[in-house]
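User: You have something folded?
Assistant:
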Amino acid sequence: MSSPCLFCVEGVSFAYTGPLVLDDIHLALSPGKFYGIVGPNGCGKTTFLDLLTGCKKPLTGSITFQEKPLPTYNKRDLARRLALVPQEFDIGFGFTVEEIVLMGRHPHIDRFSSPAEKDWQAVDRAMATIGIEELRDRYTNTLSGGQKQRVVVARALAQDTPVLLFDEATSSLDVKYTLQIFNLARKLVREEGRTIIAVIHNLNLAAAYCDYLIFMKDGRLQQHGPTSETMTATTIAEVFDVQTQVAIDPYNQAHQVSFQYFE
């Protein structure tokens, strides 16, 4: 029996004002998996995430989410199902960490109502999970870039959605907190059946954590499939134009990529 289709992307193309940024994308994503989207800069990865969240509309083609056309969802309903952790997020001035994380609960709070006990519990739980309780009363303009990014991750966790999308969500984090976020994401998939769709630049992180990889190049799908089948030296050479070796790392028991640094 085939898995249900979480996102069904059919013949999707997109352009801003000039050439196509995405060209004829066909893809079916199932629930309960960790998907990694990889590819060179400017190949359309972030634009593809924007289409999945409904922030942008396809020029051609269609996207179905949970068996309904994506445009038929209103923003509030969609925000109860999808949470996005962007690479850059303008937190603004005058907000504390607690207030930012609480914003993740807004889709669940009725209009003109105050946060309920369950909302505050979700905020506390998210901050504890990310380890930012001591920052609760700090104003966001006093935080480092890495601290701000962890706050944004906590905000998405507080949103408590079955699908989380990460757009290079750990790009400003050091190794410890990068691994924390990826370990958490994998736990959410394996223990809670959530779906993670992440744009990832680090091929070794993608190889170690993702169940399924989507390789993009020049706005098109170059290759996609289970990580063990697609993370190959041939595919990496075709997509990134670099020479590599891919092997199982005995320390982590995961596929890892070794790059040829010097020609």
Remarks:
- The mean pLDDT is 94.
- Residues 36 and 206 are 6 Å apart (CA to CA).
- The two ends are 48 Å apart (CA to CA).
- DSSP finds nine helices and twelve strands in the chain.
